[in-house]
Amino acid sequence: MENLELKQVKKVFGSGSNQVTALAGINFQAKAGEVTLILGPSGSGKSTLLTILGGLQQPSAGEVLVNGQKLNELTGPAADQFRLNHIGFILQAHNLVPHLTVQDQFTLVDKVKTAGNLPAATFDQYLGQLGIQDLLPKFPQDLSGGQSQRVAIARALYANPDFILADEPTAALDSQRVTEVGKLFQKIAQQEQKAVVIVTHDLRLKANADKIYQLIDGQIKEVSE
Ligand SMILES: Nc1ncnc2c1ncn2[C@@H]1O[C@H](COP(=O)(O)OP(=O)(O)OP(=O)(O)O)[C@@H](O)[C@H]1O
Q: Is Transport tagged as a keyword (predicted)?
């Protein structure tokens, strides 16, 4: 798996006077080895782009391609299997399971995806870099927003996906943590040849991005920084 691509992707919600064009014909590519940042104001289409890229929702028009193969023609169990094996989502609602400890959030991944998850030594390193080793016995209700965010990042990384798609992964973090998370994403992209796509308002992540795009009113353009 090397790249994930949008070709002429449009997404329109509603109809008539309620119609909203969230994405107005997007061409975009996320490549293995790179952290790609997509910046944009609220309502510019960032979450829509990310969820279409990962196959969580379908475009109204256009194609989603994985290494040139059409992802948006996969449906039902085949689409679920593809997402499970290749895509790691870090979503705004961290979606931690309320009655499971942090440790068990990761054990649950092993139950759902029985092969290909990270070896314990590598995962321990990531836990250390995310500063969450001490949180393993805790329940989600006892975590701060920033701690939940870092656990959600760790859970996505644990499944060792080819593509890591993150929606505002650092909103609740202080600047030092943002730097650490940014460095971890970049290390994983480079050393493990993963493609990391982050949609965010958080300009602090620019320091660890390889490509930066701006999304405004459903249109995307690369910015040179
Ligand atoms: N399921 C939906 N039904 C109707 N409109 C939607 C739906 N999802 C998104 N939209 C609209 O599409 C536009 C883009 O929304 P989106 O959530 O992708 O933006 P965003 O850049 O992620 O915003 P934010 O930074 O606030 O999360 C907005 O006008 C939003 O109201």
A: yes
